Amino acid sequence: MSFWEYVGNRRTQLLLDTYQHASAVFQCMVVATVLGVLLGVLTYRSEWAGNLAITVTATILTVPSLAMIGLLIPITGLGVAPTVTALVLYGLLPIVRNAIVGLRGVDPDLVDAAKGLGMSRLSRLVRVELPLAWPPILTGIRVSTQMLMGIAAIAAYASGPGLGNEIFRGISSLGSANAVNKVMAGTLGIVLLALVFDAVYVLIGRLTIPRGIRA
After folding, report:
1. pTM of the predicted protein model
2. Tens-digit pLDDT profile for residues 105-161
3. In a 3-state reduction of DSSP, which class is residue 167?
4. At what angle do helices 11-43 and 130-151 cross, to 10 degrees?
């Protein structure tokens, strides 16, 4: 059976796996973005606190994904829980780092001007600093998403959702008629999803970042 014949015969299951993969990455990225930006906001004013946040999240990223999920299984069980936990943890570093760099890079004169207008610290953060720091933050989100697309495939080890199941089925049946087709279908699906997500981020950047800041 050719690759395209295999895809046609397995279309329903592949579409379901693709949806689950995209949904898992999207939801984990939302959580990772909220946590990462929050960590950046809480630590960017302090040199040691910012370095600590970056060091801790960088250390998490050095743990092999298969080992991470294996360590989480006794705590969270199989399925969605270890997948979500691992993906959120792995997605933090680029967002935290870029949030800190972006917030520290805001022109102090603009912040002082906003303070002179009577804005509170929270108002300055929300209306001045975060909007100006948004371009590097969005870049961090894009990088995290691309990483998680691949890492999410390992979730199949813990009975997690997504295209990793197709890849693992192929690897476990190497030598059979459709083993290579299974690996190719799962891998190609992840690559296409990564390209689609990245295109969406490019569009978001064009819609949310003023042309002057992009330049």
Report:
1. 0.88
2. 988 888 888 888 888 888 888 888 899 999 999 999 999 999 999 999 888 777 778
3. helix
4. 140
